[in-house]
């Protein structure tokens, strides 16, 4: 069949929206899309790396198509989930419990 262009691929658009507007982690996006694939009878074989690279490759094209000129994938690319293990002073660091 005819292949869908990456910027028209619903999954790619969803990845961009979830990352840009819902601020989900790559792990969460991966889980959501794989769940969706299962429901559609597809193989849930997306990895975080795949989701990440599809975002980096395709999000700028999708943004351009949507007229979002100020979009910069670098603003959303950091793989580290915000607020986890930043500098060793995460939540609870230094508090004595017990």
UniProtKB/TrEMBL annotation:
**Chain spans, region Disordered:** 64-98
Q: Which domain of life is it from?
A: Eukaryota
Q: Where is the composition biased (Gly residues)?
A: 89-98
Q: What is this protein called?
A: Uncharacterized protein
